Amino acid sequence: YELILDKSVLDMEKNLSPIKLKKGESIKTVLPEIKEQISVINDTIDFFNRDETKKYILGILICSLLSSFLTIYLTKFISFVIDGVIMQKSELPKYITNFFYDDTIYSKLIILTIFMLIIIFTISISNYIKNMFNTNFKLKMNKNLKEEILDHTTYLEYSEYISYGKNQILQRVSSDADNFVNFITSKYNLVV
Questions:
Q1: What is the pLDDT of residue 20?
Q2: Which helix or strand (DSSP H or E) is residue 18 part of?
Q3: 8-state DSSP, 101
Q4: What are the Cα distances from residue 155, in Å, to 33, 85, 113, 124?
Q5: Predicted TM-score of the model (pTM)
């Protein structure tokens, strides 16, 4: 029998190393390692089910949607400027013409420019808030993950634990957590 299990969270060179059971050996010998891996996976899932995490994810999603919508709407305003004011080929919507104080091209361009600046400013604020949520999300996930991995190191066999220096363990925990967080946030940001 061959099982592919993560022998140690700290073993970065071989994330998944095969554990071979000898003839006559039962799966019960590797069951504690399997249970520990399931525990770490469950803790990660619990992190995503927390209210604070949901707040971050929802905030990032709302800000991304708002920013995307306003960016698309900004192109519509540019078409209003070109087609409706400069070329005078199309009629402008009523909600825009209500703000015109004069019938000259310059006054219409000034009003549309003000609207476009407001939209650009709102997009900038939305992106800033999204980046704040994203940074807080990454920091919180990184902190929780480091705590989980450090807790997991207490389940290492003594001979494995003693073979690493304390600073080496902390460095590997930190780099593992950073790699995992960067992977998760990059995939989440790709989707959003």
A1: 55
A2: strand 17-20
A3: S
A4: 9, 71, 63, 47
A5: 0.63
